[in-house]
Amino acid sequence: MAQIDYLPVATGTLAEVDSQANFAGSSYQQNGFTAGIALPSEANKIWRQSSVMTAALARFISQQLGNINVLDDGNVTALVALILEAIQTVASSVAFPTVVVVPSSATPVFDCTQANNFMHAVFQLDMAQNVTSSTLINAKAGMLVTFIIKQVGGPWTFTPPAGLNNFGSVVPIIGATSTQMFVVDKTAANANAVSGVMQS
User: Fold this and answer.
1) Rounded to an integer, what is the distance from CA 62 to the centroid of its chain?
2) Do residues 71 and 107 share a domain?
3) Would you say 61 and 70 are in contact if contact means Cβ atoms under 8 Å apart?
4) Which of 56, 138, 145, 195 is buried deepest, with most CB atoms within 10 A?
5) 82-131 per-position pLDDT tens digit
6) E-assigned strands of the chain?
C-alpha cells in the first residue's frame, strides 16, 4: 500500500469543527485571526479546509501514478513534478472518439453512452431507408455530437432528433455523405449546430 503523508485534520467523530454556515462570510474566514485566542472549532475548520484538499490531491497523485508514495519531505520541486505527471496521465487516457455505427432503421437511436469519449460522440448512419424519426439519448451538457449520414441507395430522407437546432438537410444524392456537428447546451435537452453540413 502506498505511503501518503498528507493527511486530513479534524475529520474524526470527536472533532470540534465550526459549521460551514458559520464559517462562510465570518470575520475569521475573511480576515483570519488578528488578535487573541482562536476558538478550537474555528481553527479546526480552517485546518480541515486546507488539509482535506491537500490530502485529496496527494491521493489523486498516488492513484494516477500507480499507487506511488507521496511523501511530506519538503521537496516542492518534486511534488510539482508529480502533480504535472498525474495530470498528463489523466489527459493521455482520454481516448480519441471512435465512430459509433448505428444500424439502418426508420427510427434509429443515437445513444451517447456508446461513445468511448465522454466529451465527443460520433455517430455514423448508413441509411438504407427513409428515417421517419430519430432519437438522441444520454447527451451531456457541453458534449460535442457529430452525425455522419451516408446515403446507401435511395436517396433517402432523414428526420433529425428533436432538440437539434439548425440541422441541415441531408444531401439527397445516392452515395453522398453529410456530416454535421452539434454542441449540447447546459440543459442537455438541446444541441446547437457548430458546423454546417459538409458533403462528400
Assistant:
1) 21
2) no
3) yes
4) 145
5) 999 999 888 776 667 889 999 999 999 999 999 887 788 999 999 999 99
6) 99-102, 109-111, 120-127, 135-137, 144-151, 164-165, 177-184, 191-193, 198-199
More confident site: 70 or 200 = 70
Which cell goes with 187? 440543459
Can you give the C-alpha Rg of the chain in angstroms?
26
Give the end of a domain, one of 73, 92, 111: 92
Spatial contact of 188 and 161, defined as CB atoms under 8 Å apart: no
The DSSP code for 73 is S
In 3-state terms the chain splits into helix, strand, coil percentages (rounded to 5) of 25, 20, 50
DSSP state of 63: H
Instruction: Tell me: do 107 and 88 sit in the same domain.
Output: no
- CA proximity to 86, closest of 60, 67, 54, 118: 60
CA distance 27 to 34: 10
- 36 and 117 fall within a common domain: no
CA 4 from centre of chain: 27
